């Protein structure tokens, strides 16, 4: 897609670009500091959307606090002039150890929604993980990206025909891996949504992949264009699926040759079970603190999971990634890559595709400079000796 500068100049080039624009009187269009970005986005969104994004408070604070407890210990005089920020996952190279987390219902923050995010991700070559609960059908999102990398996140519904159909659609749309989210078989008690009496799906938002799916449509007596209420009811009926067990993974394993990762792993024994079930990777996640209030922070769960996995499959992590130093800390503690969540939604809310492009360009620069200034020329060199726990 776009022609990127060599990785060892992401940082310098971006700084130069920003300072030169400053000479013309032009400032970044978004707050660069993550907390300021969050505050600005919260002011720009409707109270319902901002309440939905925020979710619950305590588990999210725990995620941020866990990153605070670990500190980077920079090393000096190690010639880091030539840097390679890329990583390899499932035989594919990606520019940096960051993917865009699957986030549903993006239409509630900006009309460009998933298409805007997809274009921005494509502009820097970071993989975008499409959510099952996308506002926009995945084929349309894929089309906006050219051949840039994309993965697919599956919400495993009660309807086996829909599940099979959506995985096939994801394969046809060029998705390179399947992420099965395990922690959302029910939607949690979310005080702000309850207070606002707001759930986007009931308004028909975030069900684009369902409405466009032939298997889903077969379960309806009338097309969703004629009877949207029936389609919404059907979505709500099949989405919750609390009877799933580890045995059920065998079905999915047979349906796709793509690598499968399980998202929402927080216990080392569950990471082992994922491997024993033939899964190809795990994503350590407490869903951005949105499901179990009081849940362990992802970063706190990572060391024991890393020990249990023993390098047999890749480990990814999300929940609380806000800046480059967080990425380095997660990599030091055993993650091969991380997923960026809310920060790109804040950027999308404020300035659509352009906002997400700016955020990602800044993140690449920050990653390059943080890696270099910590004394490393690649993420492969970063291990537990890079950090210390307070
Ligand atoms: C508004 C919103 C919607 C989300 N939708 C999904 C989803 O559809 N599928 C999924 O697996 N995770 C979903 N997540 C969770 C993210 O994938 C990710 O785990 C989380 O946002 C990471 O934490 P962070 O926001 O602190 O970076 C959602 C998160 C938010 C904030
Ligand atoms: O809100 C969420 O966290 C989430 O994961 C979700 C669940 C269902 C549909 C869309 C998003």
UniProtKB/TrEMBL annotation:
Signal peptide: none annotated. Residues 26-390 form the FMN hydroxy acid dehydrogenase domain. GO terms for molecular function: FMN binding; oxidoreductase activity, acting on CH-OH group of donors. Belongs to the FMN-dependent alpha-hydroxy acid dehydrogenase family. Keywords: Flavoprotein, FMN, Oxidoreductase. SUPFAM superfamilies: FMN-linked oxidoreductases. PANTHER family: FMN-DEPENDENT ALPHA-HYDROXY ACID DEHYDROGENASE PB1A11.03, S -2-HYDROXY-ACID OXIDASE-RELATED. Its cofactor is FMN. This is FMN-dependent alpha-hydroxy acid dehydrogenase. The active site is at residue 287. InterPro entries: Aldolase_TIM (IPR013785), Alpha-hydoxy_acid_DH_FMN (IPR012133), FMN-dep_DH (IPR000262), FMN_HAD (IPR037396), FMN_hydac_DH_AS (IPR008259). It comes from Ktedonobacter racemifer DSM 44963. It holds the Pfam family FMN_dh. It comes from the Bacteria. The keyword Ligase does not apply. The keyword Flavoprotein applies. Glyoxylate binds at residues 52, 155, 190, 263, 287, 290. FMN binds at residues 102-104, 131, 153, 181, 285, 318-322, 341-342.
